[in-house]
Specification:
Number of strands: 9
Protein name: non-specific serine/threonine protein kinase
Structural class: alpha+beta
Pfam family, one: Pkinase_fungal
InterPro entries: CK1_Ser-Thr_kinase, Kinase-like_dom_sf, Pkinase_fungal, Prot_kinase_dom, Ser/Thr_kinase_AS
Helix content: 25-40%
Shape: globular
EC number: 2.7.11.1
Radius of gyration: 17 Å
Mean pLDDT: 90
GO molecular function: ATP binding; protein serine/threonine kinase activity
Length: 202
């Protein structure tokens, strides 16, 4: 498994018919296991809108009372792994800024379809398949804590008075730490912290 937590894990699987590799995300069934459902909702909307910087699901299923799974395309390294290949985990100014600004396209796509990610960080941006030095595209992944900030008519939802913290403390905005409703601006604040990390190695 590439990554795992208390209830979720992501790994590499092979299609039996031809051996083609895919990514598979698993989530243990439970009363609070809704992350994979949100992943699929966002992926479905991304597919309908033709988003090229967001993951699109290939298949999904459920083993009753055990776990749910989601099959996705296999992507390249994430930005955390990439920066750790450099001395002190720090990219050059030109490379760091280039990757940071490339990360804005998937964030914009997610906001355009009406969702705020709420967990923007280096490990949630992966290289698209077949990316090269001259043609690099980043894919934003992991929509498990994402939330729609617009209703079905396209109007902004009223902010809730009490909000549980969602995200990663290292990258979270002050609004998130203060228990306030997150909006697109908070994703951009997290993006700024991510850019600082790419450039400073902190």
């Amino acid at each position: 498994m590439k990554g795992s937590g208390k209830q979720r894990a992501t790994g590499r699987v092979l299609r039996k018919s031809d051996g083609k590799p895919f990514a598979c995300k698993l989530e243990i069934c439970g009363p609070n296991s809704h992350g994979l459902d949100m992943d699929y909702i966002v992926m479905n909307q991304a597919a309908k809108r033709g988003c090229s910087h967001l993951v699109q699901s290939i298949d999904r299923g459920k083993i009753e009372d055990h776990f749910k799974f989601l099959i996705m395309p296999l992507l390249g390294h994430n930005l955390t792994k990439i920066r750790h290949q450099f001395v002190d985990g720090r990219l050059s100014l030109s490379s760091g800024l280039r990757l940071a600004f490339l990360a804005l396209s998937p964030i914009q796509e997610l906001h355009n379809i009406g969702y705020v990610h709420r967990d923007i960080k280096c490990s949630n941006f992966c290289l698209a398949p077949n990316s090269s030095r001259g043609d690099t595209r980043l894919i934003l992944v992991d929509y498990g804590v994402s939330r729609a900030y617009k209703d079905k008519t396209g109007n902004l939802k009223a902010p809730r008075e009490q909000v549980r913290f969602r995200g990663t403390t290292r990258y979270a905005s002050l609004n998130a730490h203060n228990g306030e409703e997150q909006a697109p601006r908070d994703d951009l604040i997290s993006w700024f912290y991510m850019m600082v990390e790419l450039l400073s190695g902190m």
